[in-house]
Design a protein that fits this description.
The structure holds two protein chains of two kinds.
Chain A: H1 3-13, E1 22-29, E2 36-43, H2 56-74, E3 80-85, E4 89-91, H3 96-101, H4 105-119, E5 129-133, E6 136-138, H5 140-146, E7 150-154, E8 160-161, H6 164-167, H7 175-183, H8 185-197, H9 205-210, E9 216-218, H10 223-235, H11 250-267, H12 273-283, H13 289-304, H14 307-322, E10 341-344, H15 348-361, E11 365-368, H16 372-391, H17 397-406, E12 407-409, H18 413-417, E13 422-425, H19 431-444, E14 450-453, H20 460-464, E15 473-478, E16 487-492, H21 498-510, E17 514-519, H22 526-543, H23 547-553, H24 563-570, H25 572-585, H26 594-601, E18 608-609, E19 616-617, H27 619-624, H28 634-655, H29 661-671, H30 682-687, H31 690-695
Parallel strand pairs in A: 2-3, 3-5, 4-6, 5-7, 6-8, 7-9, 10-11, 10-13, 11-12, 13-14, 14-15, 16-17
Antiparallel strand pairs in A: 1-2, 15-16, 18-19
Helix pairs in contact in A: 1-2, 1-4, 2-4, 4-13, 5-7, 7-8, 8-11, 8-12, 11-12, 12-13, 14-29, 15-16, 16-17, 22-25, 22-28, 23-28, 24-25
Chain B: E1 8-15, E2 19-20, H1 32-46, E3 57-61, H2 73-80, E4 89-92, H3 98-112, E5 117-125, H4 140-143, H5 154-164, H6 170-189, E6 200-204, E7 213-217, H7 229-233, E8 254-264, H8 265-270, E9 277-286, H9 296-307, E10 314-319, H10 324-334, H11 349-352, H12 359-373, E11 379-386, E12 390-397
Parallel strand pairs in B: 3-4, 3-5, 10-11
Antiparallel strand pairs in B: 1-8, 1-9, 2-8, 5-8, 6-7, 9-12, 11-12
Helix pairs in contact in B: 1-2
């Protein structure tokens, strides 16, 4: 048994649950009389809904297949070797479940080395090798092909990426080293760093070809046939593959520098993966592949043993799994059909909601408001947005006609809502107003209609309390911008019944939102945590810490934006309103910042001016600030803020605001854009010892979002 | 409105390699519609002068029009092949003569002026759709003795044809079959067949049929080069005890697809498309269903009469070899020797296989190639027998004909 085979055997023993991919070897004669060919098909034996992954036993199978073709190539029995995948899937990379199980650095090292040892054999056969990217190709799947001599790609390929950095890894089976050596550092940085950090953006087949990753592009209908005919031509010397020369001069360094800039702007140095990948890309400039592979092995092992990756995988699984099967949602069979939607209010938020319901549900949506002018404006907004979609080619004229015909506005709620199944209000955030609106709606809407509120901080139960049928009221809390942030907090009021809740979850699914069930508690989840977080920042500023120190204190978390920039985005007035609500509920923990009040009263919409191109404290704001004389260091501020967050989450879990810490993290990831490397936040609080310090215990058992014990 | 009948030409034809039906066959895990799609795309690649937008019709034949051969496969295959949505399509069925009928039907429309150019072909995946799948014959056929009970079983009809021609012995049929295999092997050796085949990628997940994974099919699977009379002598006669019809002197059960481009001659010339054959006449005829193999004889009589030709004017024959006896009956009827050099020069369905509704275009593609090589020949014909007692014949003129030199 070779050392590689032994290495993989050991790794496979650590991962008994692997979905094993077979590497089938099949021989046939190429067209054009080009000779006998061996084609390896990677196939896990399942259909496309379970994409092919590459765990240790899978790698061992590929290794064995290469043993076979290596000998045939050496003996002159074949003229070339190809690799392709099962229908619709090439291979989507390492099996993350196996990575989660790894406990020791040497085991992590073995995974990296095992992949390298197997894949690099593809570049050392006595005959040329060809990868045919027939379908989804990610991570290690992409890397299999990078080790081949030539590559073709299907124009029908929907997703191609090196997503490792997105998760907290580096493309460590050759990707960091081979890709820049194939297409140059600039394009490699764009694929490895930029795409990964842009919500894991995927390439399509045509782009894979245009980037120079693949040497030929063929349509999906006969992709493999044309790839093999092309292969025959290449082998016969009728086609010579020419690749543009790579700039190994200054452009290489500039590309790496640009990568660092992108990484800084996205993770602010808080997550190591992008930087480790960039280090390897930078070093790959000299073309020394083995040195690069060794560096990949080390980076991979370090990252696998690090908390950021574990948090990243945890976060990924939350979004992919828990986000699609919400914890605590009632039986979906209880849900009632929603064939018409009413929206109370025709302001911007209401109009955005109308657009969303319209596009996703494709049922009549009727807006009401207190005067015709507002209604016309709301309907006009929706029509304009539909026209934008039409202009961009996202929908065709027929669809635009259909959607426009579905949205209407009427003054008379009785006329608008008489046959609505779901009515959502997005009126002014005041209990009296909302109760009044619901009373009016209840008077005219059918008895089964769901009454939903988009309130961000008011009590859903109280809002329902004066109705004859409070059981059909649910909170339906979206996050701004509605079209961008996936989170939808679904709030169960005291009397909300299962059928209404199931209907709400059913609607959320159709809206393609990540729904999380939340108890009717002040400000629910995201706003409560963010407000506590912001509150502590404001407190330390009010007490005397300079604004820039307070802002910088939380930079090591790598949040999407600094606290005050976030407050600007939310709007200081709304921030103040939520803090007042929470202050009423929990006066011992939530303060109302006098400085924030002053800023709002002065009509300021933000704290910064951007005249110089970067944010600088607005002198007018600076003049308003009244600070004490307690000056904390960044570290002290950070500790205080994190302690507050840990305490608040601990209390929320005690109160049963959500079922588990996982829901808190899912909310923060999808509603506030908190990063994967924090795992939302509780894995980070556990990792940094904050949970232990504040609550005397971790939020998550070791191994859930960290290296298992 | 005065109308002028237009000359119709066979521009080009291709096919997939034919496979053996069944779990070990090369196409066992390949969809029928995908086979047609590959053939259509190959036609488009080979004929860059044919603007897909100008295609007026896609006629695809299949005998069993359900599953992956259903859903109006002419239309779906067009979309799957990447033809513009503006190109219509339909399905056709005349059992074994499906593709032939697709050609004549679109040819009629071209002649009439309704189309300038069309794609016509056929498919039969007899592995996924065994003969008789889902059929529901009207009980009156039997109760009123409208047809003999053997009519639905093609092998039995072949035995019946042997009865009609007592001089056609099993020995003669086997000799014919051996020659068919020899001619096909020779045609392969000379590269006459491969040039009109489109390679097809095939997946195999069950090791029953051989190596698993993706493979590429570039040659006909059913061929049995080196077949001898001795090999054939011992084969069973499954359709009749002490009968004459065996698996060796008949076509097998096969999977495959064909496609051709049929155009008005003017359109072909204006668009720089090849003109491989010119349509002279076509005809269909019915016979007693229980001797369906007799069908080519009256069909050919009609087609010759229409064209004002005699059998002596025909320089090349492509006769579908559903059964050796059916070819031999035709030859006997017309007084042509069993081993006449004009007949099935490249061998026939006994060697290549006969995926029912696809075969007609294979005959035409092979005839077209023979025309090109034999400019001294002016006329050729393609003919086949059809289940339930029919025959189908198309007479073609060789555009390369150089006159009587």
């Amino acid at each position: 048994m070779s050392t590689t085979a032994e290495l993989l055997k050991g790794a496979a023993e650590l991962f008994p649950g692997e979905v094993v991919t077979q590497a089938h070897v099949r021989h046939f004669d190429l067209p054009l009389g080009a000779g006998r060919f061996a084609l390896i098909t990677l196939d896990n034996g399942h259909d496309h809904t379970k994409p092919t992954t590459l765990g240790p036993q899978s790698l061992a199978n590929i290794d064995a297949a290469i043993d076979q073709v290596e000998k045939e190539a050496a003996d002159g029995e074949i003229v070339g070797v190809g690799v392709t995948g099962k229908p619709f899937i090439f291979a989507v990379g390492a099996d993350l479940k196996g990575v989660e199980l790894l406990k020791r650095h040497e085991d992590a090292l073995a995974i990296g080395k095992g992949g390298h040892d197997v894949f690099k054999r593809l570049s050392k056969l006595a005959v040329p090798t060809f990868a045919y990217y027939n379908g989804a190709s990610m991570g290690g799947g992409v890397e299999v092909g990078l080790h081949c001599t030539y590559r073709t790609v299907s124009a029908a390929l929907p997703a191609f990426s090196l997503p490792e950095v997105f998760l907290g890894l580096v493309p460590g089976w050759g990707g960091c080293t081979l890709l820049p050596n194939l297409i140059g550092a600039e394009k490699a940085v764009s694929v490895i760093i930029e795409n990964s950090l842009n919500q894991n953006r995927q390439l399509k087949g045509k782009q894979v070809y245009e980037l120079g990753i693949a040497d030929a592009l063929f349509e999906g209908a006969d992709f493999l046939e044309q790839s093999l005919i092309w292969t025959a031509s290449v082998l016969k010397g009728e086609i010579t593959v020419e690749r543009p020369a790579i700039d190994r001069g200054e452009a290489w360094d500039q590309a790496v520098a640009k990568g660092r800039f992108i990484a800084d702007s996205k993770v602010h140095g808080a997550a190591p993966a992008a930087y480790r990948a960039l280090d390897i890309i930078a070093a790959a400039k000299d073309g020394d592949l083995q040195k690069g592979y060794d560096a990949e092995d080390r980076a991979l092992a370090d990252l696998i043993m690090g908390g950021e990756l574990r948090a990243g995988i945890y976060a990924f699984n939350l979004v992919q799994k828990r986000g699609k099967r919400p914890a605590g949602a009632p039986d979906k069979n209880l849900a009632r059909p929603v064939t018409k939607v009413g929206v109370v209010g025709a302001g911007l938020m209401a109009s955005q909601l109308a657009l969303l319901f319209l596009r996703r549900l494709e049922v009549p949506v009727v807006l009401t408001d207190i005067d015709q002018e507002r209604i016309d404006k709301g309907v006009g907004y929706v029509h304009a947005e539909i026209d934008k979609l039409l202009g961009k080619g996202r929908i065709n004229q027929d669809k635009a006609n259909r959607l426009k015909a579905l949205v209407t506005g009427v003054l008379d709620k009785a006329e608008g809502f008489a046959d609505a199944d779901f009515v959502i209000e997005a009126v002014f955030e005041e209990m009296g107003v909302k109760q009044q609106v619901f009373a009016e709606v209840e008077a005219v809407a059918p008895a089964h209609a769901i009454l939903a509120t988009n309130t961000s901080s008011l009590s859903v139960s109280e809002m329902a309390s004066k109705l004859r049928h409070p059981e059909r009221v649910v909170g339906f809390h979206f996050f701004n911008p509605v079209a961008v942030l996936p989170l939808l907090e679904i709030v169960r009021g005291e009397k909300t019944d299962d059928a209404s809740l199931a209907t709400a979850f059913g609607v959320a699914k159709k809206l393609k939102k990540t729904a999380v069930l939340v108890k009717d508690a002040p400000a629910f989840v995201v706003n409560r945590i963010l407000t506590r977080f912001m509150g502590e920042i404001q407190n330390v500023i009010d007490e005397g810490t300079p604004v820039e120190v307070a802002e910088k204190a939380v930079e090591p978390l790598g949040l999407p934006m600094s606290p005050l920039v976030l407050l600007e985005l939310v709007g200081p007035a709304i921030g103040l309103h939520v803090s007042e609500t929470l202050n009423r509920a929990f006066p011992d923990r939530f303060t109302v910042s006098p400085n924030l009040k002053a800023v709002v009263e002065a009509g300021k919409r933000g704290f910064y001016v951007y005249d110089s191109g970067k944010p600088e404290l607005d002198p007018e704001v600076a003049a308003l600030l009244k600070q004490g004389d307690t000056v904390l260091t960044e570290e002290q501020v950070r500790e205080r803020v994190l302690d507050a967050v840990a305490q608040e989450i601990g209390l929320m879990l005690d109160e049963g605001v959500v079922a588990e810490a996982q829901d808190i993290d899912l909310c923060l990831i999808t509603g506030a854009g908190w990063p994967f490397h924090l795992g939302g936040i509780t894995p980070y609080l556990d990792r940094e010892g904050v949970s232990e310090r504040v609550n005397g215990k971790r939020f998550l058992e070791p191994g859930v979002a960290s290296v298992p014990a | 409105m005065p109308r002028t009948v237009r000359d119709v030409v066979f521009v080009d034809g291709v096919r997939t390699p034919f496979g053996k039906a069944g779990p070990k066959g090369i196409y066992h895990e390949t969809r029928a519609d995908d086979l047609v799609v590959k053939a259509i795309r190959e036609l488009l690649r080979r004929n860059p002068g044919l603007d897909p937008k100008k295609i007026d019709e896609v006629a695809v034949a299949a005998t069993t029009q359900i599953g992956d051969q259903g859903l109006t496969i002419g239309r779906t295959a067009g979309i799957l092949a990447g033809l513009p949505q503006s190109v219509p399509g339909y399905s056709i069925d005349r059992m074994c003569a499906g593709a032939l009928t697709a050609v004549t039907t679109v040819a009629g429309s071209v002649a009439f002026g309704a189309y300038d150019v069309a794609i016509a072909g056929g498919v039969e995946h007899m592995g996924r759709h065994p003969m008789g799948e889902g059929v529901d014959p009207n009980p009156r056929f039997v109760s009123e003795k409208l047809v003999d009970e053997s009519a639905l079983f093609m092998g039995m009809t072949a035995e019946n044809l042997h009865d009609r021609y007592p001089s056609i012995t099993k020995q003669r049929a086997d000799e014919y079959a051996v020659r068919s295999q020899e001619k096909a092997a020779k045609a392969y050796a000379n590269g006459k067949i491969q040039a009109d085949l489109v390679p097809v990628s095939v997946r195999r997940t069950s090791p029953e049929g051989g190596e698993t994974g993706w493979g590429l099919v570039t040659a006909d699977e059913p061929m049995r080069p080196g077949t001898t009379l001795e090999n054939l002598a011992g084969l069973k006669t499954p359709f009749r005890v002490h009968g004459r019809v065996t698996a060796g002197n008949a076509a097998g059960l096969n999977d495959g697809a064909t496609a051709s481009v049929i155009a008005s001659e003017d359109f072909a010339r204006e668009n720089g498309l090849p003109v491989k054959m010119r349509l002279v006449s076509y005809s269909f005829a019915g016979v007693e269903p229980e001797v369906m193999g007799y069908g080519p004889i009256p069909a050919t009589e009609k087609a010759l009469a229409q064209a004002g030709l005699s059998i002596d004017d025909i320089g090349l024959f492509e006769i579908n070899e559903a059964f050796a006896v059916q070819v031999l009956a035709f030859l006997e009827h017309y007084g042509i020797a069993d081993d006449d050099a004009r007949v099935n020069q490249y061998g026939g369905a006994i060697a290549f296989g006969h995926p029912l509704a696809s075969s007609g275009v294979r005959l035409m593609t092979q005839l077209a190639r023979q025309f090109e090589e034999q400019p001294h020949v002016r006329y050729g014909l393609t003919t086949m027998c059809v289940g339930f007692g029919m025959g189908a014949t198309v007479i073609w003129e060789n555009p390369h004909f150089e006159g009587d030199k």
